[in-house]
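Rotation project, supervised by the postdoc (A.L.). Task for the rotation student: set up a whole-complex structure prediction and record inputs and outputs verbatim in this book. Inputs entered:
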Amino acid sequence: MFALVDCNSCYAACEQIFRPDLRGQPVIVLSNNDGCIVARNAEAKALGIPDLAPYFKLKPMLKRLGVHVFSSNYPLYGDTSNRVMETLRQYSPSVEVYSIDEMFLQLDGFTMDLNDYGQQMKQSLWQDVRMPVGVGIAPTKTLAKLANHGAKKIPQTNGVCVLDSPKKWQWLQKRMPVNKIWGIGSRLSKRLVEQGIITIADLAAADPRQLGNLFSVNMERTIRELNGESCMPLEESPPAKKQIYCTRSFGQRINTLAELQQATCLYAARAAEKLRAQDSLAITLHVFINTSHHASDTYFNSKTVKLDYPTNDTRMIEALVKKAVAALYKDGYSYAKAGVGIVELQGRSHKQNDFFTAGQSMKSEALMVCMDGINAKFGRNSTHVAAQGIGGRWAMSQKMLSPAYTTRWKDIPEVIC
Amino acid sequence: MIITKIPLDQVQSYLPLPLYSDSVAAGFPSPAEDHTDQALDLNEHLIAKPSATYFARASGDSMEGAKIYDGDLLVVDRSQRPEQGRIVIASVDGQLTCKILDINNRCLRAANPDYEAIPLPDETDLVIEGVVMHVIHHMCWA
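Outputs recorded:
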């Protein structure tokens, strides 16, 4: 059996933890750079505030409705997510952190009433962390995800839904469209609808082999999982990422090459940090720059470039990114966004040396270890490559940032005595 | 076939050597070597349940009788039961407030005669945001 615990409007709920005055009030959280709305609590949804809408367009309406608006506060959300995970570890020795607000628990061999157990999880997450959650419990991960959906949508479940017999999951499958299944995106569901597969029950009744051949092995697994046959095990340590991207919108529009290069070098450095953290080497990079979609004159371009040899050296990666941006850059545009992706990479232990080209030197390995060490101890960007420049205009704008209540001493909550 | 010359400093290979935490004995071995313990960790002493614990800063003088002074650091555990007489963090008019919980007299009491007790609202409305487990008070600002 698997349980999927999903935080309800996670970011908005985090903003309410140390602000009891905001409970029951509409709260929304904006994306990086205060660009668009990425989280809305139930009260905000009830006011008809759309998801992923650009903030600047809705600003007057939000003010009129008295909605509390926050910039994203990732230190707070990350720490809260860890607390949720720690609390859930009391309920199962095997927990998979699927995302910042979703965790799978393995409940094999548990003999207690699973509905009660789910209610206990939900209660202690509220008591200890002040995080409201929904819990879905079922024999496969795909069904647990479905059960979680039921827990959120059906008030009688009181936030916990257990699908432990075909009768129960079929009841729900008949009432839900195929695009609500875990791992089935909008494109895939369109193709399924063309095949006459409209509800989840239609898909569950399809022949897994036949559809597996027509689509992919994942489709076959999904169909088997919808019928209670577990095909996707718990992944306690996440597999190394096959691609690493760092993309941002700028705080202000950029219209010089030098600034654009500095910003992309900063993103390259962040991507290289993630690369080293998972012990991989970069082979191919993808660099893109673009103007705003709303601009009168739009320009969008990208370039894929290959490194001379697999490396995790920020200096090598930044040098290549700088060159790529110079090639992409066109004068006369106001750039709004850029990104650097490491799209081909390999594990450092799988490195194959080429007899005729030099590989990454020991010196640069040592330098990167040293740089990461200093930055871990003294804070991000304490040391960096000069190509990133200092204090650029592209830096994130976070005008409505709440305190980092649990991760910075100067930000801890004040209580009135 | 084109042969490229590679500068020597780029072809160094990487050979990690094991590093022993014991240094080579040059004199007498330390008699304490086999009896070392981990240094004491204050977190272990002050925090029973890290995932439910947060820190807060006291502001005001209403709890001085309970030895909580302005600027003190409070260690608060949300998982503890708010029982009669415990010092709690309560949400009063949406503000985090530190007081003594007096369930018997249905009020939140200050530990300072200058302050009046705050009557408890209906039981359902009272939200306790944790029990104060420890106070950390600086004696000397080094």
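Student's summary: The longest helix of chain A spans residues 257-277.
Supervisor addendum: Chain A touches chain B at residues 18-22, 82-83, 86-87, 124, 127-130, 356-359, 361-363, 365, 405-406, 409, 412-417 (CB under 8 Å).
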